[in-house]
Amino acid sequence: MNSIQVGKFKAELSSILEKVQKNGESFVIEFGKKHKKVAMLVPYKEAKKPRKFGQLKGKVDIPDNFDDENRDINKMFYGE
User: Does 48 fall in a domain?
Assistant: First the structure.
């Protein structure tokens, strides 16, 4: 990961974007005399296919008492 001052970033934006696109490089953008890190430029990744709802239906068993409260666990969290 590269760090770059905002002034240099502005001046070299096109070449920086080329490095990000072609080489997958990332840049931390710094601002001011103290080089405060304010932003990060990273390569864009296409979103994966959306997950299909219910794809585990019939493959996972959830017991009927799944939502029942347990007295001992409630004691640990809430006391007597």
Answer: no
